[in-house]
Each structure stands twice: as structure tokens, then as C-alpha cells.
Design a protein that fits this description.
Structural class: alpha/beta
Distance between the termini: 73 Å
Radius of gyration: 28 Å
Strand order of the largest sheet: 8-7-3-1-11-12-13
Helix content: 25-40%
Number of strands: 33
């Protein structure tokens, strides 16, 4: 059967799902289609022409290479297609973004046919996705006296690719659609259990919110054809949780506009809003697509006549509505006055949504075009020997003489690219920075690969110190979906120059370690900037930003990222931990005490948490920095002491060495280079030449939070509060309760110890607790299933060497096998302990989940509705988050323990402890 016949069969299958033909990315299929186009009598010719024009993916896909070559033949008169004139062929090339299309356009522009050269030049003037090989050709031609090359460069220097674009409309009409009350997680927009379909944009679009919501959005569009539908998180924040480009893609697919008539299902310009604004990661993704994100502030805290915040009987802050955004309300965004209106009534200033830089993103159809455009303009001006005219909004550079620097301000100044030489920059400054470490995870990686292809990138930027492609999100079940997607992803990334968890050649053992643990190890400098394709890219060394797949692609391709320097909130500690408390309880208590200190205002949201926990090694400190995603912080920085940092770097070196010994290093010896950098950093600290990073004593913070360890008396549990009468207060991570609240009798259906929130000591705690129970009772019996997933293989090896893994094996009813991985997801659980493969497991919820309606006690990060456990008729699923000892004891008892039972169970166990620096 020919590839085209297989494609027709696939089209029929997709029709049954209500889908259009899948966009073509393969050279072989498109070559068959081109042959059918050339055969004027072919029965499939008409459809083949349509597939060629309207259904072929651009960029550096192999199909794009074939398409560009055929269009070149048409332009040169070597092939004739009635439906595609040479002029139309140029138009099609102009929509292919880069890679093969740029190569063809350069061939034509620098060729001998003057008329064709001029046409090609006019198209090239609109293109920005040029790389070194492309600009080198232009530069060489210019130096050789080529007038066409000069003409193109002069256009680039004036940034005509941007200035000639249509202006942004002064008024943008929107009609509101409240997608949910409370925080809207990206799981609602792009469910984790549909991760396998993310690279198939039309198919994945079917999973956004619900079919009913999709119908309501379409109805609003029919009623208001001149307005864009604006998705709203009423009384909440839009886009919290995972860093999903697919979430924004889905919103754009349903509410945005098509980026190109010749590229299917790639939409731009979504408009989203939230009472409490937009999650920082989600807002970056909105920028990538040229959209608008609005902080509505349509509900505010209610105060009495003395200005004091009013609270309800539960102690929660009472909110009052400032203005309505009920579904179906027609509003106007004025991009000139930068205000939001209802008719003539001004509702709120939205200047932060329409900064000069964001207006450029909107005009250009996304931030990528601006990033690449600026680079092209700079190159052209330098080649011509002229000063580039000011076209783009100047980067805001804020200086405060005499003011000290926060840790993030120091890191950004150290890594700044293209800023005014010698100028010290502070929070609020727009900065382009060098990225040191990049991480791509496996359920978003295929989209990152698509983004790299779309921006015509073929090799990792040489300035990136190290990059890693994980396999942790698909570690639990090696099913047909994973088998179809993951090997393809690993090959692409490996070829691109990224260290990959799975070896496309099959030489080294597959490593499904949790991505954040690996990134934490390969970050060997606390001055580093890390970009990762997951919201929990929150390393305890350096400053790490979780990002969408597009921003990850941009970091891989250019070695840079652009963003304002964030404000910081300083977190310090006083007092002493009680002997029965675990550091996880301190993490949860930090969130609770912060909210209490600021009358329910989350001062962490959108800012850097600069946490002073310098006595903890990087592994343990990551438990705090990881949770800052749930605190809605933009990122976090751990301030470490010299001795602690050196020990953490030595541990990182040993783990990188293991990766090298497994055969994971590449031809560029990236991993060895990281060890060399670690050695250099250790020597700098030991010699005193460059001590561990600290902020200046006179640095300025948005807020300072002091956490009192003395008042943390009991384990602290993050509760989804699934039955709260106020829907907006469910699933927020802000409801933190002590153990006694549950009365020692709340039923638990399943316990889970795993995710990036745990480290080796947590697995040792499981082992020690089993020993204690065995000693007291003669055996261990579970009244609820306990799922245990070590985050890395290294941890298992270390536990084996220290005798703890044997204890876990003794009481396990299931132990993973690398030779025989599960091919189907577990749907039922027995009251035993499951030792699962290293990876994300239940925390991700894309492969395995607890039984519907279960009450789960977990060490994981997310408690969103449907993430770990879905609802069933008559019973809401709920995932409560707690420390490892609470989870283990809950599984043994089948209920949440009393404080007395808990204290007895942890007696003599080495819990993770922390002492503020002042106490040492």
C-alpha cells in the first residue's frame, strides 16, 4: 500500500472523530503527492494540490524541504502546475517561516535571473527566521558586491519586516466567557491524560474544558462575529499549574485567529483574563502567540469603615464585586488609552497587558518574530557598517543608585546580553539573558520539536552549557502511545545536541529519572539561568523558570531568553523545628504563614521567592523551591552557605559522572564540560575568589516574610477543600490544615510517595517506618494501597547500597521491571505497596491515576481536580498533599492518623530537618 493510500485510510478514521486530515510533516508522503500533482490525469490530483498548498507543515520538517524544492522548480519554470503560478509559489514560500524555504529564497535572490531575484528579495524582506548559515550567505554576497543582497540588508536594517506589518487595531472588541470560578489550571485547558495528542493540534483541541463549553464558545462567536471570545478565571488566576503551550494553543484554536491560511490549526492572538491575573508561565505563553492577558481585578477585598479587611465566619477574606464580567458581556480593549471599557464606562487600566513590548508581540503575531527580528536587524546594520535605526521599543533599564541588589538582580546582570555597558539593572528592567541550562520534558517535548522545526532551528546554540530531554512523564506505562511518540522525540533531540534520557541507538540503559532532579544535578553554578518545559523547573541552584514548549525551543535555538527582572520576596526563618516535624511541613507552613501575614494576599504570586535555607543540601532544598510553583511564584532562588554549596556540587559531579559512565555524553562532551565547570566553581568558593551568591544587605524587596518554626506544632496538609461552598476556593493549594483538623478518622483510599518533591531521605523514611511497624506489630499490613516511585535510578542504587531498598522489597507486592515494563495503566489497586519505576507516576496523571472518587494522600505537587484522581458520581476525588511519614502512616492505617499516632510512628526516624543559619 502506498503512503498516500495509508494517508487516505487515516483521513477516513479521523472523519469518524470529527477531524480534518492530519497536517503532513513527512517527505515521503509529500513526494508521492507531488508526483500525483504532476500527473494531470491522476484521480487524486485535485486533493493532492489542496494537501500540498494547505496541509503541509512549514519550517524544517522533511515535508517542508520537499515543498520548498518543488516551489523552486515552479518559479524557475522547471515544473508547471496550473493552480500554482510562480507568483503564488513565492507567496507559499513566504508562509514557510524558515529553513528550506529561506535556502530556496536565497538561491533565487542571489541567482542570475534578475526578475526572479527581485521577487525573491521582496519575500526575503518579510522573513526573520534566518540562522548563521543564512546570514553568512547574505554577508558574503554583499561583500562580493551583490546589489540584491545589499537591498535585502538595507531593508533588514530598517526592520521593514516589522514596520510594514498592519498596525494593531485601536479597539479590540471582546465577549466574555467565564471558563470556571477560582483558579483555572492548565489541566482544564489541556488535560494531562491527553498529553499524547498535544502535537496533533486539532485532535488535542477537542479536550479543552468540555464539549459543552466548546459549544457555548461557538455560540458566542456566532452571536458576536465582530468580537473575540475572552476566556476568564472568575475570582481566580488563569493558567496556574503546568507550563503547557498546548493549553494556550487550545484557547487560540477555539478563540484566536489562523496564523496563516496555508498552515492548518496553528492559531494566534488568544485573549485571556483572570480576577487575579494570569499565571506568569501562562502569560509568557500568551506572549509567544501574540495574545493578550488581562488582570481584571473585578473582585477586591471588602473593608470596613476603618479600612480593616472583613472576614467571614471561617476567617476567610470577604470579596466584593467591582464590575461584572458575566458570560456574554461585551467589552472593549482600547490599545491606545490602554483601558478596558464596557461601552463608555472605563473599567480598569490594563497598561501592564499592553506594554510597548507586548504591543510589538501582538503586531508581529508572537514574541519569536520580535526576538529573531532584532537579531536580524543588528546583523544587517553591522554588515552595512551603519547604526541601526530605533524601531523597536527600547528595553526599559531601571537603575537605582546606592541601592543593593537582590540575588535575582545579580544573576540577571551577570547574564545580561545587549544591555547598556556598565549599567546596573534592577527589578522591572527588560533584559535579554544568556541561558545556561535547558530542560525539555517528554509530554511537551514533541511540541518543542515542532516549535524548533517551525523556527527552522537544526542545532543547539553553542552558548548553552547543557540541555536534557527527559522520559519521566511517560515512565509508568510503555504503551502504544508512548512507543509511537517517545523514540521519535528522543532521536530528534539527540540529533539536535541534547542529552537524552533514552538512547535512540539503544546503547545505554533508558533513564526515566524525574527531569527536575536531573536539571538540579546538571546545574553546577548558582549564578546560572535555567529554562525548562515544566512548571516545576525550580532548581535549588541558580534561578530556574518553568516555561512553555516554545520558550524552551527558543532557549535551545538561541541560548537566550527575554523577560523583565522580577521583583523578589525575601523569606527567612526563626525558631526551631519540633523533633517530630519534617521539612515538608515547613514548606506548607510557609505558604500558610505568608497568607496570614498579608491578609490573604499572595505576595509570592508572579515574583521571585529568595529563600534563605543555606544549611540544606540542594536535594533537600529543592523540596522548597519546587513547591514555589504551587505558591504561584515566578521562580525561586535558594541562598546557600559556602560549605553547603560545595557539598551539593560534589554530589552533582558524582551523578553527572554516572551519566557519563552510562554512555550518555555526546560528541561535544557536554556532561564532561559540566563537571569541569563544577570543579572551577568549587575552587572559586574554596579560594574565596567568588563565594556563594548572596544578596546585598541593602537590597530592596517587594516584601519580606519571616517564618516562625516554633509555631509549627503538627504536620501541615495542603487540602483541595473539594466541598467548599465557595467554588473559587477549591483546588487552590492555599488551604493548609494541621493534622488534628481531620480528627484521626478521615478515610484514605490510597497513599503515594513520589514525584519531584521527594529525595533519597524520603525513601529512607519509608524504610525506617516499615521497620518500626514491623518491630511493634511483628509485620506490616496496609489498609490502603501505597504507591512508591523513587524519583531517580541513582536514589535506588544508593538505597540498595545502604540496605533500605531490601526493606522496601520485603513489603512490596509489586516491583517494576525495566525488562518487562507495564504496557497498560493500572486501574485497580490492592492494599499492598507498589514499587514503581522512577518517574512522575501518579503526580502527572497522564498515564495512571487513583480510582475515581478516591481520597488520596500524596507527597506530590498537584491537587487540581482530575489530576491524580477524578470524580465519580456522588463522590469527589481529592488529593491531599503531605509529608512522607504522614502518607505512609495513612496508607498503613487506611485513614489520616491522629497527632499522637503520628508522633509514635516517627519516633527515632531521621526526618528531614532544617535549622536557620542563625542557629548554627
Amino acid at each position: 500500500m502506498s503512503l498516500y493510500q495509508e494517508y487516505l485510510n487515516e483521513i477516513e478514521e479521523r472523519k469518524g472523530q470529527g477531524l480534518h486530515p492530519k497536517p503532513i510533516d513527512g517527505a515521503e508522503l509529500l513526494s508521492e503527492i507531488i508526483n500525483q500533482i504532476k500527473d494531470v490525469n491522476n484521480e487524486y490530483r485535485e486533493d493532492s494540490v489542496k494537501f500540498f498548498i494547505y496541509n503541509t507543515l512549514p519550517g524544517t520538517t522533511s515535508a517542508a524541504g520537499v515543498k520548498a524544492k518543488f516551489l523552486k522548480e515552479i518559479i524557475l519554470g522547471e515544473a508547471t502546475v496550473a493552480e500554482i503560478t510562480p507568483t503564488f509559489a513565492f507567496e507559499l514560500l513566504s508562509h514557510m517561516k524558515g529553513g528550506p524555504s529561506i535556502e530556496v529564497l536565497l538561491d533565487l535572490a542571489l541567482g542570475n535571473d534578475e526578475a526572479i531575484a527581485k521577487q525573491a528579495a521582496e519575500v526575503l524582506k518579510t522573513q526573520v527566521f534566518l540562522y548563521d548559515a543564512d546570514t553568512a550567505r547574505l554577508g558574503d554576497a554583499f561583500n562580493a558586491g551583490n546589489t540584491i543582497a545589499k537591498d535585502i540588508l538595507e531593508s533588514y536594517a530598517k526592520a521593514e519586516f516589522f514596520t510594514e506589518l498592519p498596525a494593531v487595531a485601536e479597539e479590540i472588541k471582546v465577549v466574555t466567557y467565564i471558563a470556571a470560578e477560582g483558579d483555572i489550571s492548565t489541566d482544564l485547558l489541556s488535560p494531562g491524560n491527553q498529553a499524547h495528542s498535544r502535537s496533533d493540534r486539532e485532535l488535542h483541541g477537542q479536550c479543552m474544558i468540555t464539549p459543552a463549553a466548546q459549544a457555548e464558545i461557538k455560540a458566542l462567536q456566532a452571536q458576536h462575529p465582530d468580537a473575540s471570545v475572552m476566556l476568564i478565571a472568575e475570582k481566580g488566576t488563569m493558567g496556574v499549574g503546568s507550563s503547557r503551550m498546548s493549553g494556550v494553543n487550545n484557547v487560540a484554536l477555539w478563540t484566536g485567529k489562523q496564523a496563516s491560511p496555508y498552515v492548518p490549526f496553528v492559531n494566534i492572538a488568544p485573549i485571556v483574563a483572570g480576577t487575579n491575573g494570569i499565571s506568569p508561565i501562562f502569560l509568557t505563553t500568551v506572549d509567544v502567540t501574540g495574545g493578550i492577558g488581562i488582570d481584571l481585578q473585578n473582585w477586591v477585598k471588602k473593608v470596613d469603615e476603618n479600612g480593616n479587611v472583613i472576614r467571614d465566619v471561617n476567617g476567610d477574606v470577604v470579596l466584593e464585586q467591582v464590575y461584572s464580567v458575566a458570560t456574554g458581556t461585551v467589552l472593549t480593549i482600547n490599545t491606545k488609552t490602554k483601558k478596558l471599557y464596557n461601552g463608555d464606562q472605563e473599567l480598569i487600566d490594563i497598561s501592564r497587558s499592553l506594554t510597548p513590548q507586548k504591543m510589538e508581540f501582538i503586531k508581529a503575531g508572537g514574541s519569536y518574530a520580535i526576538v529573531f527580528g532584532k537579531k536580524i536587524q543588528t546583523f544587517a546594520a553591522q554588515t552595512l557598517g551603519i547604526e541601526a535605526p530605533t524601531v523597536f521599543a527600547p528595553s526599559k533599564e531601571i537603575s537605582n543608585d546606592g541601592q543593593g541588589l537582590t540575588a535575582v538582580e545579580k544573576i540577571f546582570n551577570n547574564n545580561a546580553v545587549g544591555s547598556t555597558p556598565g549599567k546596573v539593572l534592577y527589578a522591572g528592567s527588560d533584559v535579554r539573558v544568556k541561558v545556561n541550562i535547558v530542560g525539555s520534558q517528554d509530554t511537551t517535548g514533541l511540541m518543542t520539536a515542532q516549535e524548533l522545526e517551525a523556527m527552522a532551528a537544526t542545532v543547539i546554540a553553542p552558548t548553552v552549557d547543557g540541555a536534557y530531554q527527559s522520559g519521566c512523564h511517560t515512565a509508568s506505562v510503555w504503551d502504544k502511545k508512548a512507543q509511537a511518540n517517545i523514540p521519535k522525540l528522543m532521536k530528534f533531540m539527540n540529533d539536535f545536541g541534547v542529552i537524552t534520557a533514552r538512547d535512540p541507538k539503544g546503547v545505554y540503559h533508558s533513564m526515566t529519572d524525574v527531569i527536575h532532579k536531573v536539571l538540579n544535578d546538571i546545574t553546577v553554578d548558582e549564578w546560572a539561568i535555567i529554562i525548562g518545559g515544566d512548571s516545576h523547573t525550580r532548581m535549588s541552584k541558580g534561578v530556574a523558570f518553568g516555561a512553555d514548549s516554545g520558550t524552551v525551543a527558543l532557549a535551545l535555538a538561541t541560548g537566550e531568553a527575554s523577560m523583565p527582572i522580577p521583583e523578589s520576596v525575601k523569606v527567612t526563618f526563626k525558631g526551631e523545628m519540633k523533633p517530630h516535624m519534617d521539612f515538608r511541613d515547613v514548606v506548607h507552613a510557609t505558604q500558610l504563614q505568608m497568607l496570614q501575614q498579608f491578609d490573604g494576599e499572595n505576595v509570592f504570586q508572579g515574583r521571585i521567592i529568595e529563600v534563605h535555607i543555606g544549611t540544606l543540601l540542594a536535594d533537600q532544598a529543592f523540596t522548597f523551591t519546587d513547591w514555589t510553583a504551587e505558591m504561584k511564584a515566578k521562580a525561586s532562588i535558594c541562598i546557600s552557605q559556602d560549605e553547603t554549596l560545595i557539598e551539593s556540587l560534589e554530589i552533582a559531579k558524582s551523578r553527572i559522572q554516572i551519566m557519563i559512565e552510562k554512555g550518555m555524553d555526546n560528541k561535544n562532551q557536554v556532561l564532561q564540560g559540566l563537571i569541569n565547570k563544577a570543579n572551577k566553581r568549587i575552587e572559586e568558593i574554596k579560594s574565596g575568589a567568588k563565594p556563594a551568591l548572596t544578596p546585598d544587605v541593602n537590597a530592596k524587596y517587594y516584601a519580606e516574610v519571616v517564618i516562625d518554626l516554633d509555631i509549627i506544632e503538627e504536620p501541615m496538609i495542603a487540602d483541595p477543600d473539594v466541598n467548599n461552598a465557595d467554588v473559587s476556593k477549591r483546588y487552590t493549594h492555599d488551604t493548609i490544615r494541621d493534622l488534628t483538623y481531620y480528627g484521626g478518622d478521615k478515610h484514605v483510599d490510597l497513599g503515594f510517595v513520589g514525584s519531584c518533591m521527594v529525595h533519597k531521605d524520603d525513601l529512607k523514611i519509608v524504610s525506617q517506618m516499615l521497620r518500626n511497624v514491623e518491630k511493634a506489630n511483628g509485620k506490616v499490613e496496609f489498609k490502603a494501597p501505597l504507591v512508591v516511585a523513587a524519583p531517580t535510578y541513582n536514589i535506588i542504587d544508593e538505597l540498595k547500597a545502604e540496605g533500605d531498598w531490601e526493606m522496601l522489597q520485603k513489603y512490596s507486592g509489586f516491583e517494576f521491571s525495566d525488562l518487562l515494563p507495564k504496557s497498560t495503566a493500572r486501574t485497580e489497586y490492592e492494599n499492598i505497596m507498589y514499587l514503581e519505576r522512577p518517574g512522575c507516576n501518579l503526580c502527572m496523571g497522564n498515564q495512571e491515576k487513583a480510582a475515581k472518587g478516591d481520597t488520596v494522600m500524596a507527597t506530590s505537587t498537584r491537587l487540581f481536580q482530575g489530576r491524580v484522581v477524578e470524580d465519580r458520581d456522588g463522590k469527589k476525588g481529592e488529593s491531599l498533599l503531605a509529608s512522607t511519614p504522614v502518607v505512609v502512616l495513612s496508607a498503613i492505617l487506611g485513614r489520616i492518623p491522629s497527632i499522637e499516632e503520628y508522633k509514635t510512628a516517627v519516633e527515632g526516624i531521621n526526618l528531614t530537618k532544617f535549622k536557620p543559619i542563625s542557629m548554627n
